[in-house]
Amino acid sequence: MPIARLAARACLVLVLLAAPGCGGWRAPGGGPSGPAPRVGIALGGGGARGFAEIGVLRVLEQERIPVEIVVGASVGALVGALYADSGRVLDAEFHAVALQAEHVFDYGALSVFSGGLIRGDRLEAFVRERLRNQNIQDMTLRFAAVAVDLESGKTVTFTRGSAARAVRASAAIPGIFVPVTINGRPHVDGAVVDPVPVRAARKLGAEFVIAVSIPPEVRPVAPKSMVEIIHRSLSIMANEISEARAREADVVIRPEVGNIAFDDFSKKKELIEAGEAAARAAMPAIHAALGTGAPAGAASAR
């Protein structure tokens, strides 16, 4: 049998077995002639800078990237819940823009003796009031919030139950917010262990993961208040973990917002625009990988 015919048959067998190496194969789950991979987005933490994630979601929707799975840690859980609730960025943006500092920082004299300076009641109430679907399992898009179980030290991915409670737990920065009790166990900010929850997105079924990694705060002014000092310290420690986790994604989007403080809620428009710009730069790589549009060229988000 001619060598060319043998090679052609060998390539056909490899394609049928979904083995890489022959032209046109894409892993996992998609290809030019097969079903598109399930797209998930992993939204990282970053305080108020997380408003940039709204801009990223806006561009993905405009570019018709079919996001099916949304996983968030810390502020990413808040943004992710507001988005997954209806699956519409316009709804998420409307609610997120309404969030003010007073919805987050409810200081209490007794909170210090409960493990934090801020109770977190107002944040939970804000989320509950804004959601149409109160339980995670009822949301339009598949959603999960990542937190850390303080007793076991392990990551917990909430895929059922109260969305508002899960978001509050995921955003409970240690030392700043009072730990959140769920099922009798205390939980804190998911960003402590998994600041960019790519692995959680894959466990939920995402085959192509877009990660949004919010850079650490880089400002010439040294932090002064206790809250600022704790948050800046935790951000510095979490940065290396964030980079490692983000590299596990298929595409990473990094909005340039490090010059904005984590508690500055006055720059939402600027933050959203920065998220849009970063997402636009990443679109060639996303379209090329998914086969949904223009080839990669102008920028790679990896």
Task: Give keywords.
single chain; 302 residues; alpha/beta; 8-stranded mixed β-sheet; 9 helices; 8 strands; globular; disordered N terminus; disordered C terminus
Q: Could you characterize what this model shows?
A:
There is one protein chain. The chain has 302 residues and is of the alpha/beta class. 38% of the residues lie in helices and 13% in strands. Strands 1, 2, 3, 4, 5, 6, 7 and 8 form an eight-stranded mixed beta sheet that branches. β3 and β4 form a beta hairpin. The N terminus and C terminus are likely disordered.
Could you give the topology of this structure?
Blueprint: H1 3-16, E1 39-43, H2 52-62, E2 67-73, H3 75-86, H4 89-98, H5 121-130, E3 142-149, E4 155-158, H6 163-170, E5 180-182, E6 185-189, H7 198-203, E7 208-212, H8 226-246, E8 251-253, H9 268-290
Parallel strand pairs: 1-2, 1-7, 2-3, 7-8
Antiparallel strand pairs: 3-4, 3-6, 5-6
Helix pairs in contact: 2-4, 2-9, 3-4, 3-6, 5-6
